[in-house]
């Protein structure tokens, strides 16, 4: 088939559908929740503006679209004149070393950029007050670092003064900076680029979004996320084993996910040992009808054990103390795992039913892992695209992924929209099917609302 | 940011690009190779026809688009009347049991379909001449099968007589059939559905494409593929270890990939121990200037050891004997791994340079693995979508993935377009960057030509 | 060499030793600590009494020796009349299912014993008051259980009334009982056998010692121990990664080991990322000269990060609150990991030196694992020996290992001597060499004292 | 219990044994096969000559015994004057880098030996004709090498001229040499030490036996062996999956084991998926009564699939061509895996029964692995003992293990006795119990004969 045409993509059906689905009410609710993304819509074969023009009259100025990532034939920077810097910020995430390695390899081998400095311990490394000396990065230095978790540059949380950092970079002649980090880091990078332009010494500042929670909308699947849920599966299996081995054994696993429950959802779906998955996007009643405690009682009656996977941002309305914010300015969360452990223990004590609760928090054992092969490939490619973007003079943008392809995303857009599990989406539907847990309502925190 | 508009996605640049890229010639070639997918194109933000209508005047009849997969509010089949069948065909691929499990779980728990039969040993199981008795599949039977590789149903290669199979299905009252297999299997399923309609007893025949090579265009990433390259990484590491431990040690790893080199490319990129990656899509001269042997000589001089990853379909012009076809009708391939081993051995013997060649073929150790957590999730979701499609009366289609979303693809379209590594694409560029191997020309076999 | 003679085992030396070893003082201390096991002793080639008789005049009655485990040509029980029971007690340990599986396989296939009952939830399953129904165990039931961690029988802590249990067993006609559990469990099994003999209805009660800590003297290496330290290595690696990625990062890993630090010692030695290993057998000063805090300060000055592995029973003199005992009668321990975390945090706060401490407790992720292949083999063999012992009418004994060979150990002897890390032994010397930590004195708790 | 006495180790029995065991005939054969190691023998509690003296009148000169390994208070070599060399020879084995690392760490940190040279590519590195430059080994160089398989020094097969090597070592002032390798390597090391003594310049030559097959009698469990069978388990699982997924599927896995079937036996026992285990120590009839082909027919009739594990040295009487010897002087073996594949294929063709045979040879994927944590610990300890032995002036010996303890073994004794699976031992009995295969007779090759 040399050229796909519309009729090639028509699906055969046996006839009209006359019977109600067992979840037809839920499907109606879903259509109302996010109108316009219904199952009767069709998905475009083409995703490039130019290809589509053949079929549609486009108002190119108005059609939202992304610049495609990739190497350009013409460069803004003369490779010989480039002095590049790399900085890693915030909590650990599998793949950081892979990204550093990829940046150095592509800058060096592809563009002959030989002056690459690795700033130590996050933005602290751009503030001379801390006295950290940068690492000189060469292919020899980074050759094997992807076998280890963490970041050879070290990391720290929180911002530093923008002007101080820009002055530091200028003193060292850095004209290209790669910032690997989360929302706060990218906002800092944006401020830094703007300040540099203001000061008449523009720097290409390219971000590589780091979010183990997979919660950046324009990244689709962030590096480290697959490694994270792959490792999380082991924790769920262990909790399941403990739960099954005691009468009325209950295993609780707290997983990463401040605002988005992707790790919990994917890990639970992968291993099918969880009976309840609690995520920030979905509300759950504690007691009474259709509640977690009621469902847990029934589960124990029926099967003698239960496994609960809870994302760290779930159930905050029950457990978020006025805990203030951390150094990076993120709201501190209450611990829904410990909260549930206590609540469940007291509940069954009041029912006079002996239970055994085991609580697992594998957080650091996940964050410190080396990347899986899939994430290694992803990191190398993100790094290559970041290098290409920098060489072409882009700035104030991050490398994103959209519809499975790598794109340039303005940092402002990237940090403004969070990716969350759609409480009416097919992913969550699969979780409900796999666990058999009650269908609960979307949470207030769910950005799709 | 409540609503993304075109200007939100504009990327900041520091100014015009005046310098030639080191690969600008190659980028020109690339644009010529696959015109219209250039880096100056932009990628659409919207991928739903209905969303795009806001910005564009659409000729809906002509714009190629896919039906979106998912549960429908109305069903074609009355759940109580459904008798479902499942069949797995062809070579092993990680995740087969996950798909079987997912189908049974969703049919049973979501649609209350309780009569589900697993036909044994591929299409043989639909031919009474073989005398195989189907397995009755229940949630209890499939509960833990995803922990094992392979398929509990067994498999076989090659077709059976269509009419015989349709009669067999009708005798047993099967009205929904799931066919898990490759190209040949899906063609067989198509014929089967057409024959059943002809005979006035339509069956919903839904395919789940199985291709460890990841070579189906409308599937984007097939189940088992990630598991395959994840395991392949171990073989490359072992070959690298053997190569480094001998003076002039050469490790050759043959990986799966009859027509598409994705496994070789991803595995090599993940681990970065390979110095040469040979895939069906890219030609390579054997001897003389810019050839593999010349490059290998240089590599040994410089580094004393080398690792070659070769996809089974690479270099066929050198090694494909007139080997005929297998039972499924696939052309038998020559073995480029053994061919290279001999060629290289003779070459260095003639140069009087002692070398040590170790040849690794990990094929069965990869095909028989259980799925990684990522592939387990993918399989469960593919199965859920297949169940939804069947219940709504679709037929002669497979579950595909397009731009990261699950879609319905007519079987005819699915089997007619192969997915291959684009020899001018960014993935292959990354492989060249990571290995340092010569840039070779696209092969004749490369469908993009 | 057909027959080894004394002279064959003489080692060649180059001449007399004239120089002091850097640790000669320590070696003198060591000789004093455990006199008679010095390096000038020689080790016997023969370990069987009968073989040695050729060379030595033996007072057979006085020479301590073990009965060798293995199948006997004559049996006490008529296989047809055997009704066997299996019970698993206490905390989880990798390999429990392997042992259950091995018992069933050997009893069934070797001895044609078909009535095998698996009692649920530890000794609770022998007390009808709990109403647990035993599982009927067959090869079909146990075929694949070794792929999962935990125990299919379930477990519980603590004893039940001996007479109640004996009556329950007699009512069911059980004449052979296998008790898989720790010290408390074996003491319970001993009481049970004695009571049954008293009541004139003897039961063969054979124990298989379960101790993840590897602290039973006559078992040498207990099942599950290798799996435990193999998994513990991952936790140490993760802590190391976290520690290195922060300036003055400190990782603390708490590992199993109530009285014996084998898991901590082996895991630290295997991965070589730990800088301090704290075990129950070795004392450590907190502050001042030669203390952990002083050594930690120096380490941070020199290397910017540190990793501390602490066995749960270490440092009890600092942290054991009057925490009472658990259901099995074990003294509850203070948590030396949390204690150290707080102590270290306060110490460096007082020095005004910012540090980052990450605390990892992987306990449940280790206990719930399936056994490694080595432990699977060990479990199968322990089970086979236990079955052989039971069929020959042995009772009140456990299967042990001595000098690398499986032996029968009277339960009374097995529970009376603890195996501990010798603070002057070569294992601990290797740990000191690998970590560079100070040489500290043996703890009061060290049974070798 | 402060002091174990003979009566503490008496096991309780319920009474005399009156019934015949189902394998009593086999047990009689076993007693005849290896007289003196019967089950009525008892095993000594004490294994030190000095401890035993309390109970027995010893003829110390005649009682065979080993020198115990460990650090000595007095050294032969002045640490400052030591120049050490390390060489690795023969095929790869997991743990080589761990041993190298351990030697460097202990020599450097314990004895302040700073001049340590790593000779490249086996004994070639001691022959200047090859022009290999030694690596200067420091803690910094070897710090992380244990994470990789293979040997950083490289290896080669076969001997070099002894005099040439001794002269080379003397020219460089080497007075301590560590030889890591198999039988041939240790024989070479012995010759080297003898020649050096002859020439009046004695060298401490200490061997660390490397045998992935675990076939050295005085080593009990060689480094790399556990890693090998742990990885072999994966190959068996894959073969099992392939076999089950085809009707009459047969999986054949060839594992290492030239003269000793330990890897095959342990791997098969660990995973319990094998139906036949063929090892060099046990003969098997090909055709006719009680033969492998007959047993295979029955197995396929009963279960539709079969898995065969074959050690590379098994069935040589059927397949060893006159293949000559390799560079190290080892007899080349016929390939019993390919032989069986062909034999089985033809056999069932003649019976007109369609089968599917899959053949897996995971050899290189096993040899190139990094060591498991257990093997890492073992390697570090072997290295430490080797360093201690060398410093005390021992020579012409290897580090062995006897009854679970590390000992010094004269090289002559070590290379003269092979460790094999006892065809009447409990290990092999467990294999027969786990597979259900026929009981076959000991092979001619079985050294215990």
Helical residue percent band of chain A: 25-40%
Can you tell me the CATH class of the largest domain in chain A?
A: Alpha Beta
Strand content of chain A: 15-25%
Greatest contact between two chains: A-B, 120 and 120 residues
Characterize the main sheet of chain A. 8 strands, mixed
Measured on Cα atoms, how large is the radius of gyration of chain A?
24 Å
What shape does the CA trace of chain A take?
globular
Individual helix count of chain A = 15
By helix and strand content of chain A, what is the structural category? alpha/beta
User: How are the strands of the biggest sheet of chain A laid out side by side?
Assistant: 5-18-17-11-10-7-8-9
When the domains of chain A are counted, the total is: 2
Reported CATH architecture of the largest domain in chain A: 3-Layer(aba) Sandwich
Mean pLDDT across all residues of chain A, rounded? Answer: 91
């Amino acid at each position: 088939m040399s050229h796909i045409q519309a009729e090639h993509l028509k699906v055969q059906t046996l006839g009209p559908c006359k019977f109600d689905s067992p979840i037809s009410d839920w499907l109606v609710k879903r259509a109302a929740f996010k109108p316009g993304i219904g199952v009767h819509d069709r998905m475009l074969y083409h995703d490039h503006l130019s290809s589509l023009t053949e079929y549609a009259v486009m108002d190119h100025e108005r059609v939202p679209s992304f610049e495609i990532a990739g190497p350009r034939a013409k460069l803004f920077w003369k490779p010989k004149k480039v002095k590049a810097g790399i900085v890693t910020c915030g909590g650990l995430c599998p793949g950081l070393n892979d990204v550093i390695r990829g940046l150095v390899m592509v800058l060096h081998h592809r563009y002959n950029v030989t002056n690459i400095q690795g700033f130590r311990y996050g933005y602290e490394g751009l503030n001379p007050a801390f006295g950290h000396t940068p690492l000189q990065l060469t292919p020899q230095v980074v050759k094997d670092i992807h076998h280890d978790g963490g970041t050879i540059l070290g990391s720290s949380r929180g911002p530093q003064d923008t002007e101080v950092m820009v002055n530091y970079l200028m003193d060292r002649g850095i004209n290209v900076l790669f910032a690997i980090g989360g929302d706060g880091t990218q906002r800092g990078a944006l401020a830094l680029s703007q300040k540099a332009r203001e000061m008449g010494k523009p720097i290409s500042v390219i971000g590589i979004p780091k979010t183990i929670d997979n919660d950046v909308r324009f990244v689709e699947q962030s590096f480290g996320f697959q490694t994270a849920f792959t490792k999380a599966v082991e924790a769920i299996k262990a909790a399941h084993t403990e739960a099954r081995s005691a009468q009325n054994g209950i295993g609780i696993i707290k997983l990463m996910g401040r605002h988005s429950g992707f790790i919990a959802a994917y890990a639970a779906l992968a291993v099918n040992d969880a009976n309840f998955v609690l995520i920030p996007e979905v509300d759950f009643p504690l007691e009474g009808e259709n509640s977690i405690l009621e469902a847990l009682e029934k589960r124990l009656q029926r099967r003698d054990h239960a496994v609960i996977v809870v994302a760290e941002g779930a159930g905050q309305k029950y457990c978020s103390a006025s805990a203030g914010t951390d150094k990076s300015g993120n709201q501190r969360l209450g611990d829904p795992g410990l909260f549930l452990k206590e609540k469940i223990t007291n509940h069954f004590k009041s029912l006079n039913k002996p239970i055994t609760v085991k609580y697992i928090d594998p957080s650091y054992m996940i964050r410190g892992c080396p990347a899986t092969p899939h994430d290694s490939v992803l990191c190398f490619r993100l790094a290559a695209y970041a290098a290409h973007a920098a060489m072409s003079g882009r700035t104030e943008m991050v490398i994103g992924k959209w519809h499975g392809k790598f794109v340039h995303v303005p940092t402002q857009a990237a940090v403004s929209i969070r990716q969350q599990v759609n409480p009416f989406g097919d992913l969550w539907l699969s979780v409900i099917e796999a666990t058999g847990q009650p269908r609960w309502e979307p949470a207030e925190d769910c950005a799709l609302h």
